[in-house]
Specification:
Blueprint (H helix, E strand, L loop, with lengths): L1 H26 L18 H18 L15 H21 L13 H8 L2 H23 L13 H22 L5 H18 L2
Helix pairs in contact: 3-5, 3-7, 5-6, 6-7
């Protein structure tokens, strides 16, 4: 009786062990399926977006190099500047001619060759000739550089037209005075010419 019971117990134990092993094997089977998840993009609030936009704008503005402005400087030597300096030089020479020592005047007789040479070589005569040459150069440079500024339809009292008239008349008076020197009365004509050129300079100074 005892040996049969032992065999039954051993067989029952083996059956339970086999059943437990099969159940454990079923539960331990690997699940090779990937998990299905959906990606949700992060949402930004309006305040965060405005902050990012402001940050990008500040970076872009800092990266953009501001162009440096160079001050425009007109060239020193131009036709207009040459005309101006020639006019001022004419006035300076006219003043120098006026105050320069004059040779003694010869009256009631013909001048000797030595006296004529002394008159021609005097400072007054040299300054006078230089003034006449400078006045002619002033008028010529004004015509070349300011020809488009003269318009007859603007009337005689237009400042540019008055400048041209007084300047031309003054230069002609100075040259006429030089041609009459050392004759009597040439000094007055020369002074009138110098004053006329001074008025011309003043009109457009």
């Amino acid at each position: 009786m005892c040996p049969k019971i032992k065999f039954h117990n051993i067989g029952f134990t083996l059956c339970l062990a086999a059943f437990s092993a099969s159940t454990y094997a079923d539960e331990a089977t690997l699940n090779l399926k990937l998990p299905t998840t959906t990606y949700t993009a992060p949402s930004f609030s309006s305040g965060t977006q405005s902050f990012m936009l402001a940050l990008n704008e500040s970076k872009n503005q800092s990266e953009i190099s501001t162009p440096t402005r160079t001050k425009f400087e007109s060239p020193f030597f131009t036709g207009s500047n040459a005309h101006k300096y020639l006019g001022l030089g004419t006035l300076a020479l006219a003043i120098a001619t006026t105050i320069a020592p004059k040779p003694p005047e010869i009256e009631d007789r013909a001048a000797t060759p030595a006296e004529i040479d002394a008159q021609d070589s005097s400072a007054h005569a040299k300054f006078g000739r230089a003034t006449a040459a400078m006045a002619a150069a002033t008028v010529a440079s004004g015509l070349l550089s300011h020809w488009d500024d003269f318009h007859i339809e603007d009337g005689i009292f237009d400042p540019d037209n008055l400048h041209a008239l007084f300047g031309t008349a003054g230069a002609l008076a100075i040259m006429y005075a030089i041609s009459k020197a050392p004759g009597e009365g040439h000094a007055g004509k020369g002074m009138v010419g110098g004053i006329a050129m001074g008025v011309a300079v003043k009109l457009t100074w």
